[in-house]
Specification:
Length: 366
């Protein structure tokens, strides 16, 4: 087994990405077999615990308050609602629940306390708990860890260079800082990105440089294909071709051999043959459930049928890392600090984001 490299260059990654496809697939499948059981796929359920109304301007996201999309927003779910959904997810084969809140960053207070209680509740169901709540401070990451959080998701989305074409309300360094804060705990890191946002192949390689040079590399890397939602600045982007997805998955597998590579948004556009090639190329995780936060996803029965057809087994919980302990709120070592960290606001102008914002305010006046 080769050791994990944390010094991949963009040129080397491009060389891998652009190999003749059969060679790329063979190499990726070979690495995959060295580090993982090729017939096991981890299944996560993504739950939007607070939808819409987000102050950020991510150009791909229908939850940004500034764009006019059809999604229905909702306030933070109750712990009981989340527990019911987690039990349902467990019964249908999920080993992990990932809770997403449309926040710029976590704010100390009753809502965060409620999320901590959700983490405790799901960990006690013996499921892996993941959260994606925006930027977090070190103290907040420690409080999440203490509650029993297994993974924190914070995507880099794309390369540092292209990030400025996607988001203007925060900087790449904020993302990296949050990942660093999570790394100060035992919580595993989930961080990946989206292809199909108008970025070049160099940008895709650039994102893989940023992820693979993190030490340690993220334990899971979701690879999303943009779902172009009407009303968002990226509504007119062309769908990602399956070949691009396969190349991206295979390259990710080669540069991050131990990582769980997750097929995420955009799976409804992929047929079974395409998904099978992605699994062969090293994808070993999917999101289950008919919705991914706000965009469509294949339903659970369809996925289980696919697993049967391909001879795949859902991965059990805590196979890759032990189950964290849950400390009750009353015994917590970390208090709420009421911090007001200064995350950056680059506030540069992104033409298509501005155009979508204006279109949205005109629509609101009609
Ligand atoms: S991706 Fe997250 S941070 Fe960006 S607008 Fe959507 S909900 Fe907000």
């Amino acid at each position: 087994m080769e050791s994990i490299r944390n010094n991949w260059t963009k040129e080397e990654i491009l060389e891998v990405y652009n190999k003749p496809l059969m060679e790329l697939l063979y190499d990726a499948a070979t690495v995959h077999r060295q580090y993982h059981d090729p017939n096991t796929v981890q299944v996560s359920t993504l739950l939007s615990i607070k939808t819409g109304g987000c102050p950020e301007d991510c150009g791909y996201c229908p939850q940004a308050a500034r764009y006019h999309t059809d999604i229905e927003g909702n306030d933070l779910m109750s712990v009981q609602q989340v527990k019911a959904q987690a039990l349902r997810a467990k019964a249908s084969g999920s080993s992990r629940v990932c809770m997403g809140a449309a926040w710029r960053n976590v704010k100390d207070g009753p809502e965060f306390n409620q999320v901590l209680e959700m983490v405790r509740t799901i960990n006690k169901l013996d499921m892996e708990v993941c959260c994606t709540l925006g930027m977090v401070t070190e103290n907040q990451a420690k409080r999440l860890a203490e509650a029993g959080l297994y993974a924190y998701n914070h995507n880099l989305d794309t390369s540092e260079e292209y990030y400025k074409e996607v988001i203007s309300t925060r900087g790449y360094e904020d993302r990296l800082e949050t990942i660093e804060n999570v790394r100060k705990t035992n919580v595993t890191v989930c961080s990946g990105g989206i292809i199909g946002m108008g970025e070049s192949v160099e940008d895709r390689a650039g994102m893989l440089v940023a992820l693979s040079t993190l030490s340690p590399q993220p334990e899971s890397v979701p690879i999303n294909a943009l779902v172009a939602v009407e009303g968002t600045p990226m509504e007119e982007e062309k769908p990602v071709e399956i070949w691009e997805m396969i190349r991206m998955v295979a390259t990710t597998r080669i540069v991050m051999p131990k990582t769980q590579v997750r097929l995420s948004a955009g799976r409804t556009e992929m047929n079974r043959e395409g998904q099978a090639m992605c699994f062969f190329a090293g994808a070993n995780s999917i999101f289950a459930g008919d919705k991914l936060l706000t965009t469509p996803n294949p339903d659970v029965n369809e996925d289980m049928e696919m697993f049967k057809q391909l001879g795949l087994q859902p991965q059990k919980a805590f196979v890759k890392a032990p189950q964290p302990e849950t400390i009750e709120a009353a015994d917590s070592q970390f208090e709420s600090l009421g911090e007001k960290p200064k995350w950056t606001r680059p506030e540069h102008t992104i033409e298509r984001n501005e155009a979508a914002k204006q279109k949205s305010s005109l629509a609101a006046k009609e």
